[in-house]
Amino acid sequence: MSFMQDLRLLSSVPPLEGDNISQRYYGDWSCEAQTIPVAVVRPGSTEELSTVLRLCHANDQKVAVQGGLTGLCGGANPQSGELAISLERLAGVEEIDTAAMTMTVRAGTPLQVIQEAALAEGFVFPLDLGARGSCQIGGNVSTNAGGNQVLRYGMTRALVLGLEVVLADGTILCNMNKMLKNNAGYDLKHLFIGTEGTLGIVTRLVLRLFPKSKSRCSALVAVEDFSQVTSLLRRLSADMGPALSAFEVMWDGYVNFMLDNIVDLKTPFSQRHPLYVLTEIEGSHQERDQEHFEEVLAAAFEAGEVVDAAIASSARERESFWKIRDGVAEVGKVIKDSGNFDVSVPISVMPEFLRAVQTRLDDNYPGIQFLAFGHVADSNLHFICSTGVHNDIPGISDLVYEVVGKFNGSVSAEHGIGVQKRKVLHRSRSVAEISLMQNLKQALDPKGILNASRVLP
Ligand code: FAD
Predict the structure, then answer these.
(1) What is the pLDDT of residues 363-392, one digit of tens each?
(2) pLDDT tens digit sequence for 167-207
(3) Is 108 in the pocket of ligand 1 (CB under 6 A)?
(4) Using CA atoms in the order 394, 347, 370, 128, what is the torsion angle rounded to 10 degrees?
(5) Tell me, what DSSP letter sits at residue 349?
(6) Which of 113, 129, 420 has most ligand 1 atoms within 8 Å of CB, for mutation?
(7) What is the pTM for the complete model shown?
(8) Cα–Cα dist 235/213, whole Å
(9) Is the CB of 69 under 6 A from ligand 1?
(10) Is the pLDDT of residue 164 over 90?
(11) What distance in angstroms lies between residue 163's CA and the mean position of ligand 1's atoms?
């Protein structure tokens, strides 16, 4: 019997083939090449996925692992001759343990479903990103997603207590640990967090939940220069402690572009400023926390660390602040053919780094558009660069990643490597590190069938 006949026989729902493969399985949100997979298989259980992988392993069939397909690096895009394995049917919340403050879920569950299930029990699952309605928790874990609340709760890695994974040869590895402390040997779950489906397919997870905060205070702050940004961050961290939950920085180029091009956006300030900080705290008493927040910002004002500040007095006002930051999803409608960057550099060298990137870009691409913003407290910068010429993007990327390397930064802060950044991994990882990654890949997937030609050069 042929591979496809075997696959049809062992699948609980028929694999999608030919014209039945809709376009959404061709690839993710990135601009990376998209290919129609040989078929799309949608296992409904861990055991079914294990059988599928055993068959693929025996037949040297390469597979592309697909979650919610919101990735920005092309990792889930099928390549020529690959079978797509979609996790969409392996979905649902299995258990909320209110005493352990954990949730047990299947990997194909959309992030927003998890957030809502947690809220219904009085908890929060604090991972949050713009793609929440479509991305899946398995995809979030595989990319070690970041988002807006890393400062307080850490990246996805910090929110995972246990997981179940199917290895390339079909072996099921189950470690659905619910305990915060567990030092019994190697903590193998980390092999599958942030490794973008190259070492195994995540099927189930135990996630950490947190009590829902009883208060939230937000402010949009205008500052003159980056030294004020770092002073303000130091002050807020010291005076607010772990309550500090967001510290987003937006440069004037970005904010001016948003105000001039996106309808319905405005700042609370009468004039424009060089830099803006959107900051938030979460606590346990609205009035008391608001008063304390105002005092700390007033002290920052007196110390010359901020030029102007607006504290949100309603949920609507808070939303209007976040709209400026989250409106980034709209930029692509106005600026075509842009390079979109997600990098990290130590906060202490961020201004020099940005100056170096901008100088190199201006010298090589006069008139280039450059919009910068980021989760600065997490050392994470995003920027959008465009000359309006699609063919300039590879050259712009080479130049940006070369500067990232010089500043000992990371070519990927939170989006991963996928196919997009394989060739620049060496800018952030040493030869010895890449060699160990390749050895791990060889040990866990000797035939190279899982997400081949992704992540590693
Ligand atoms: P996919 O795109 O389907 O896959 C991503 C990678 O994970 C691929 O390599 C895939 O093979 C692998 N994979 C998927 N599921 C599994 C699994 N079960 N087991 C093993 N491997 C698997 N990212 C951030 O970090 N922070 C943000 O703030 C952020 N904002 C975004 C906003 C928008 C509007 C968009 C479109 C994207 C944003 N992203 C952000 C990127 C993206 O949402 C994340 O990378 C997300 O974690 C991807 O999840 P997914 O389910 O869509 O994965």
Answers:
(1) 999 999 999 999 999 999 999 999 999 999
(2) 999 999 999 999 999 999 999 999 999 999 999 999 999 99
(3) no
(4) 80
(5) G
(6) 129
(7) 0.95
(8) 22
(9) yes
(10) yes
(11) 17
